[in-house]
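Private note to self, pasted from the team thread so I don't lose it. Backbone tokens:
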């Protein structure tokens, strides 16, 4: 019964969002992503494509319609410094209704397994979770299971938040928020992040030099 109600609610939200014309570029991107899932059920593939394309169109429209929401010259009230163009974009896009992202998640969860949903979120964020975790493991060779769980939780939270944003600069800015939290986590636990990162960079340079 809950599944039926969720399906009906999701359908209602999606119909509302679909009142906006689905952008052709968004449809093309959604089609490519769904092809990577290799869904055997053609009907399911079409429904998932519609869910993703509708979401991409919604966040694109919000971004474009609120481009001037935060005027040039606005300042960060904590520092007094002028907000950059990227800062203003992120602030404007962060004000979009939570129902836009929720409709995406509900639509995906109705049709896909949890692993497939994660695959879609990774496509939105170009695999930043796995890429960043791989780098962490190289920077912190003595990483514990507890460390990894903490880092992964933050990275997945960053990924979930990042689907609200239209371009890679904004997505990277969202991940940077959580990367800062992760770096502070190591420093607070007695492992200075800057020292570990500096050692990592030296190792990379040494490897590169040895290949010449």
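Design output:
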């Amino acid at each position: 019964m809950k599944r039926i109600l969720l399906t009906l609610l999701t359908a209602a939200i999606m119909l509302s969002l679909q009142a906006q014309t689905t952008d052709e570029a968004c449809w093309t991107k959604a089609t490519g992503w769904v092809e990577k899932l290799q869904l055997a059920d053609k009907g399911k593939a079409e429904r998932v494509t519609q869910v993703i394309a509708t979401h991409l169109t919604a966040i694109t429209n919000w971004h474009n319609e609120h481009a001037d929401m935060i005027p040039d010259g606005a300042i960060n009230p904590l520092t007094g410094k002028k907000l950059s163009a990227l800062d203003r974009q992120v602030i404007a896009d962060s004000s979009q209704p939570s129902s836009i992202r929720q409709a995406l998640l509900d639509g995906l969860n109705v049709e896909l397994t949890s692993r497939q949903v994660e695959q879609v979120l990774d496509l939105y964020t170009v695999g930043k979770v796995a890429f960043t975790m791989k780098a962490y493991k190289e920077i912190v060779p003595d990483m514990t299971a507890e460390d990894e769980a903490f880092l992964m939780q933050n990275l997945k939270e960053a990924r979930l938040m990042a689907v609200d944003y239209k371009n890679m600069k904004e997505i990277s800015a969202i991940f940077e928020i959580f990367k800062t939290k992760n770096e502070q986590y190591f420093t607070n636990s007695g492992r200075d992040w800057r020292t570990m990162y500096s050692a990592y960079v030296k190792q990379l340079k040494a490897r590169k030099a040895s290949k010449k």
